[in-house]
Amino acid sequence: MNFRYATENDLTLILDFIRQLAVYEKMLDEVVATEELLKEWIFDKKIAEVIFALEDENEVGFALFFHNYSTFLGKAGIHLEDLYVKPEYRGKGYGKGLIKKLASIAVERNCGRLEWSCLDWNKPSIDFYLSLGAEAMDEWLGFRISGATLDKLGKE
Q: Of the listed 5, 69, 89, 129, which one is catalytic?
């Protein structure tokens, strides 16, 4: 299985994968990302990275990830923000391949963990992650401040 890191020439492709994932997650109306924003944050500021899974040099899946930090471990980890494989390529090992590639990147960079979130209704993905040995973090709740609430709180 082959992989490649995204380049600035892939902005349209990255945004297309993000939108395909959003359709699958029934959240397309929440996507406000643009190619300009992706360029700024992924390639100019280097806040995130993208890898593609390839079949015959065609991109069939992608993973967008970035580093986080664990004070308990005292080292960085990798947070997988998005993982998506095109429907016609599912069941062929590309999702597992992308996770294994991220695990190898984490090991190579001496990271302490690889983690991500999954929608609670997405049973196929949950079962897939559990089959890889991932552990559900049931005791943790995710929180978010965004939009007008973030603006208000940030200006107080």
A: 129
